[in-house]
Amino acid sequence: MERIRKGDSVVVLTGRDKGKRGSVLRRTDKDHVLVEGINRVKKHAKPNPMKGQPGGIVDKEMPIHISNIALFNQQTQKADRVGIKALEGGRKVRVFKSNGEQIDA
Q1: Where are the domains of the chain?
Q2: What is the pTM of this model?
Q3: What is the pLDDT of residues 38-75, one digit of tens each?
Q4: Is the dihedral of CA 15, 21, 26, 31 positive or negative?
């Protein structure tokens, strides 16, 4: 079970964007996620007339490793670790480590 999913609100723990918050846009692979407004870089893009793209320097978000982010807990207003708990029916849910509150409804 994935501890961090698409749409989760996360906080950056390390790097130049430390302390910033954003939501997960998508998972690029097993260990990397794309977070809205985080890890923005300038890339030089060639023009592509077939797609209608102009050339120049574009700002884009790059993937960040999941070890460098943590889920944002609304109750404590802080970053929190995530655990997995099995319910009686055998269903697994994500819980915050600090207070045991369920993340998934």
Answers
A1: 9-45+57-96
A2: 0.84
A3: 999 999 999 999 999 999 999 999 999 999 999 999 99
A4: positive
